[in-house]
Specification:
Elements: E1 4-12, H1 16-33, E2 37-42, H2 47-53, H3 61-65, E3 70-75, H4 83-88, H5 91-97, E4 102-108, E5 126-132, E6 142-145, E7 153-156, H6 162-177, E8 183-188, H7 196-208, E9 215-220, H8 221-230, E10 237-240, H9 242-256, E11 263-267, E12 275-279, H10 296-308, H11 312-328, H12 342-351
This protein binds nicotinamide-adenine-dinucleotide, 3-isopropylmalic acid and manganese (II) ion.
Length: about 350
């Protein structure tokens, strides 16, 4: 098995720069323990760079990192640069150029965390949001017409392809097959959205037939969001379009206590490009610079990266250290109801490895 990995590290903006060092410390710790070797190639690609040089990354940025074994990203976007400029200048090109069409966002209720929902505790919430990551509602197709006139209009085209819907749904069913409950929920909105969502439903129905051992249901996104709050225990794997998956993957961790713990993997399943691992959260400008961000989303993302790279024991060890820390320690950042710092929590997790 390969034990030497070149990791492209992009801390990015805001709290991304604060949580990344904690993930790197953890990786350095498992490196010794499991006889691995990481070479970190750290890039300063960010809004700060945009303000200094006029671009989030160099013109040949993606070519430079495409030989990496994986990318570990913090967060991207900060006030001062319009969000669509920063995100379409860095994160979204990474997802698209590297064929990372599968976005995996696990949601779990940990022991030691308090859910904002009444009567929900450890074990009640354990699902996986499988988000389509390359098409759907996120597209460059569209524009403004008759700008600065009374007829001004904005057009934004959604794109749902046979290939794009098929590959994400197949992935969701294959992942469900390996889980205890073997259940897939489709997030739709085929009552109000006339073309793309009935197409999504038809594709779901067609692909579900290939997996008789997996049970299914589907909900329109409005009531599905409500069910996340009222019946989070109903869900196992949820397959969703780019936008619906984005929304559900903030709501999911929020009902487990905090979005600060949520990890994600932007996966290129064919492995002809690096995959990119990043917390679900953003740069949190409201708390950035204070050293109080929760580093767990970043650390768990690093564990997902190791799993993808085949370092299964090291990955499981990191997740266990997170579990043990939340279960046994009072060291919690403010989003989890405590008053510890990012670094203090990072140290306790490292000590629990
Ligand atoms: P956000 O996730 O940055 O913050 C939302 C709220 O959650 C804030 O109150 C924040 O303090 C809190 N929060 C988030 N992560 C936390 C953590 N680790 N610990 C404690 N509290 C945490 O979302 P936003 O405010 O909508 O976006 C801010 C910027 O980040 C924008 O520029 C946005 O475009 C960008 N963004 C980037 C990514 C990404 O890089 N993948 C994801 C989401 C948002
Ligand atoms: C996420 C983020 C991004 C997305 C934004 C910042 C473009 O919200 O990774 O969840 O919508 O994909
Ligand atoms: Mn999001």
């Amino acid at each position: 098995m390969n034990r030497n990995f070149n990791i492209c590290v992009i801390p990015g903006d805001g709290i991304g720069k604060e949580v990344m060092p904690e993930a790197i410390n953890i990786l350095r710790a498992v490196e010794k323990k499991y006889n691995l070797k990481f070479s970190f190639d750290t890039k300063d690609w960010s809004c700060k760079r945009f303000n200094e040089k006029g671009a989030m990354m160099p013109d040949d940025g993606l070519e430079k990192i495409q030989g990496s074994d994986a990318i570990l990203l913090g967060a991207c976007g900060f006030p001062g640069v319009p969000d669509h400029v920063s995100l379409w200048g860095l994160l979204i090109p990474i997802r698209r150029k590297f064929g990372q069409y599968l976005n995996l966002r696990p949601v779990r209720m940990f022991e030691g965390l308090k859910s904002p929902l009444k009567n929900r505790e450890y074990g009640d919430i354990d699902f996986l949001v499988v988000r389509e990551n390359n098409e759907g509602e996120y597209s460059e197709i569209g524009g403004l017409l008759y700008k600065d006139t009374p007829e001004e209009m904005a057009v934004q085209q959604s794109v749902f392809t046979r290939k794009g819907t098929g590959r994400v749904m197949h992935a969701a069913f294959n992942l469900a097959k390996g889980r205890k409950r073997k259940h897939v929920t489709s997030a739709t909105k085929s009552n109000g959205i006339l073309h793309s969502m009935p197409y999504w439903d038809a594709r779901f129905k067609e692909i579900a037939m290939e997996y008789p051992e997996v049970s299914t249901d589907q909900f329109h996104i409005d009531i599905l969001s409500a069910h996340f709050v009222l019946h989070p225990d109903w869900f196992d794997v949820i397959v969703a379009s780019n936008l619906f998956g984005d929304i559900l993957s903030d709501l999911g961790p929020a009902i487990t206590g905090t979005i600060g713990i949520a990890p994600s993997g932007n996966i290129n399943p064919e492995r002809n490009y690096p995959s990119c691992f990043e917390p679900v959260h953003g740069s949190a400008p409201d708390i950035a610079g204070r050293g109080i961000a929760n580093p767990i989303g970043q650390i768990w993302s690093a564990a997902m990266m190791l799993e993808h790279l085949g370092c299964l024991e090291a990955a499981a060890d990191i997740v266990s250290a997170i579990e043990e820390t939340l279960r046994t320690s009072d060291c919690k950042t403010p989003d989890m109801g405590g008053n510890s710092t990012t670094q203090e929590l990072g140290k306790v997790i490292a000590a629990n490895l």
